[in-house]
Prior knowledge:
Radius of gyration: 15 Å
Order of helices and strands: HHHHHEEHEEEHE
Shape: globular
CATH topology: endopeptidase fold (from Nostoc punctiforme)
Number of helices: 7
Strand order of the largest sheet: 1-6-2-3-4-5
Amino acid sequence: MWRALLPIFRFARHGVSPAGALCSLAESWVGTGEQGQNQGPEVEHWIKLGGGNPSQAPPWCAYFVSAMCATVERVGLPVRYTKTGRAVGHWQLAEPDQRIERDAIDSVRDVRGLVFVRTRMSKPESDRDRALLGRRTQGHTGIVLRREGLELVCIAGNSTGEGHASRTGGVAIERLKPGTPQWDRVVGFVRVASS
Length: 195
């Protein structure tokens, strides 16, 4: 567990931004998988650190985001996040000044460290509207690493690389691109750490 903290301690000493530390920490876990559905030592650690109960083996993408933010905060870097196990909760519980509308993302110069929030692919596209109205709905979330052309390259827990894992998942790279079904379900983005 603590191996992932070493780069963060180095970053904190050398003046790396909270957003940079958040992304580097999350990237250090790429390829880590579950051992059973929503289980395994790392997954259980993230669920607990993110405020959940590992014995219930809940979906953990939102807990992964919360755990990454909590770890960056633990080493003394400022982050503003919501400790939640609900993916859509990251958007709904964020302060208004932290929220970035989906269609305003092109105007954001530095996307590194933003949290993306979208509704699940297995649910109707109209769930996005429910989420924007503050209603509970299932979703998926992760951390934006960078922009490559029109795409946002992201990292997420409980993922197959295509989105939320309904069976066994892990920490994977995902891509969000306008005009795709994933993009159509993006509720918005949340700035949790400064660049």
